[in-house]
Amino acid sequence: MADPKATKETVALFQNLDKLAKKHILFGHQHATEYGHGWTGEPNRSDVKSVCGSNPAVIGVDFSGLSGRPKESIERTKESLRKQIVDTYDRGGVTTAAWHFSNPASGGGFYWRDSVSAPAVALLIPGGSHHEKYKEILRTVGDLAKSVKGKDGKLAPLIFRPYHEFDGGWFWWGKPHCKREDFISLWRFTVSYLRDSLEVHNFLYAFSPDCTFKSEADYLERYPGDEWVDMVGVDNYADFGRDGRYNLEAGIRKLKIVSDYARKSGKLAAFTETGLESIPNPTWWTATLLKALRSQDMRLTYVLVWRNDARSPTHYYAPYPGHSSVPDFLQFYQDPYTLFETDLRNVYRKKLL
User: Fold this and answer.
1) I need a surface site. Which of 93, 135, 301, 336 has the fewest CB within 10 A?
2) Complete domains list, the chain, with CATH
3) pTM > 0.70: yes or no
4) Does an H or E element contain 323, and which?
5) Is 165 annotated as catalytic?
6) Which SS3 state, helix, strand or coil, does residue 338 take?
């Protein structure tokens, strides 16, 4: 593991996810319990739970609101995140945190916008003009991490997935906007500052490019090294039906590269983001996703689909009651290979029940 001082619960989660991946995969959904299709902020609710009776096993949250905003707004974000993370931990579920990080050196938000965005990676690393500002932002992340205590008094572990899809150009940390060495330096500094200076010991660190790679060497081009990573993943919408295009063979090949690397390096592997917006294919869950996941001898800890927007009639990636893919999703849910929150037992203890 990247953190030799990781809490007992974080070590147990790492080991138990590794064990479970031999026969199962956890199903995840971004922002599942915060809001869903046509609703927001209702306790004990998720669209997935409304469909199948269980929350997803993995709940995605986002650290996007922890910087670039007024102090009061950041505090509100921290409080909301704390509640989501603690509630999931108390229910026995797993939390993963993405970071749509607003550019700390310019406007443009987390997306790269020509003529607006600064290539900030080189500015954030040691010696850069915004390095002290970056440390201040990481202190906010660290404060949150050290505050998420469950009913048992223990800190909830988090799978932290910063700088995702870095091989594309759509985010300011993307490959066209920074040197390989600077990206690796930023990753290593981020882990070392959180772990060694701020003493955050409840994070598992997940590395997840988009799906542009074709080989293990491609995949590892910006990899910071095994000592800086706990989980390797991939985000892949393109091969799984986006814009009506399917290339399952390519999608499976990429998942296998990730799974194989994890097995030989002692890491966890995950399908960190996927999905089909609006799910126009009513058998996507079994005929596309499950088929891909089970087609090879892969060990993937979880698969996470993207969020269900509360206001948009079309921006959703998990079914809600009445959706045409519900019957197929229920087959996906009932398959012994897939695990949901109610299937999990003691993932934060050394011995799984």
Assistant:
1) 336
2) 8-343 (3.20.20.80)
3) yes
4) none
5) yes
6) strand
